[in-house]
Amino acid sequence: MAAFDIKTLPNSLNGQVALVTGASRGIGRAIAIKLAELGANVVVNYNGSAAAAAEVVAAIKALGNGAQAVAIQADVSSVADADRLVAETVKAFGRLDVLVNNAGVFRGGLTDQLPLDDYHKLVGINIHGVYYTTRAAIPAIADGGAIINISSGASKIAIPGFPNAAYMATKGFVDSFTRGVAAELSPRKIRVNTVSPGATMSDMMAATSEQVMEQIVQMSFFKRLGTPEDIAEAVAFLAVPRSGAWFTGQNLHSSGGVTFAL
């Protein structure tokens, strides 16, 4: 067997194409810009925030490194939209190398009190959205590419006073699905991994009570919330062929130490 030389793998994303779902704001926005900084052409997926998505596209083009971007509207909880999203990505840039399943929603509440509409929304985007987009991307993604699913530390930890069992369950699906698809795509050398953010400053956290937020901050070894850029750096590590070369089926917890023992 010939020796493997990791230095033969690219240390950037130059010439590659990345599709980031839910990329118009927050963590998705930071991921899209970071991948573009590494040289990727980026598809900025959004559902309803056209103006915000256009701003992300403008920010990528303003980097001045030649990275291009387009915004594509699609509701990933729809099979037809997920299929169209991947098809339009390939039409726009001619290929697909990196898929980041970032689109997700949060709905919290006690299990016997959570409105069923909220439960169905969680399942539709957090589970079906990841499944449908991955399903559509598998035939299109280049051998040696990467799929990165955004889960949550919440799939591992329940916090008293912050009921979210249904949300936890949807992220547990993401964790398991990642491992299964990693095995399926290993013959094509496609790396499939999860990034699980800890508590990260986002729209969800902004709506959290000060008491719960402080409890979460104190759980972190660094006594702070994460930032979208923290998560984007973890995604970039897995997306780049050289740094991510020996990772597949893994769950990288970017959580400030909160989930280190899990």
Protein architecture, described:
- The chain has 262 residues and is of the alpha/beta class.
- The chain has one domain: 3-Layer(aba) Sandwich (Rossmann fold), CATH 3.40.50.
- It contains eight helices and seven strands.
- It has helices spanning 26-37, 50-61, 79-93, 116-137, 165-185, 203-206, 210-219, 228-239; strands at 17-20, 41-46, 69-73, 98-101, 146-150, 191-197, 251-254.
- Strands 3-2-1-4-5-6-7 form a seven-stranded parallel sheet, sandwiched between helices.
- The protein is globular and about 50 Å long.
- The chain starts with 16 loop residues before the first strand and ends in an 8-residue tail after the last strand.
- The mean pLDDT is 91.
Brief characterization of the structure:
The protein is an alpha/beta fold. Helix content is 41%, strand content 13%.
Helix/sheet category: alpha/beta
- The count of domains is 1
- Separation, N- and C-terminal Cα atoms: 36 Å
| Radius of gyration (Å) | 18 Å
> CATH H level: which superfamily?
NAD(P)-binding Rossmann-like Domain
Per CATH, the class reads Alpha Beta
Helix count, DSSP H or I runs of 4 or more residues:
8
Order of helices and strands: EHEHEHEHEHEHHHE
What's the total count of β strands? Answer: 7
CATH architecture: 3-Layer(aba) Sandwich
Unreliable segments of 5+ consecutive residues? none
Share in helix: 40-55%
Compute the average pLDDT. 91
How big a fraction of the residues is strand?
A: 5-15%
CATH topology: Rossmann fold
Largest sheet: 7 strands, parallel
Strand order of the largest sheet: 3-2-1-4-5-6-7
Shape: globular
Domain Ketoreductase: 16-204
InterPro entries: KR_dom (IPR057326), NAD(P)-bd_dom_sf (IPR036291), SDR_fam (IPR002347)
Family: Belongs to the short-chain dehydrogenases/reductases (SDR) family.
Pfam family, one: adh_short_C2
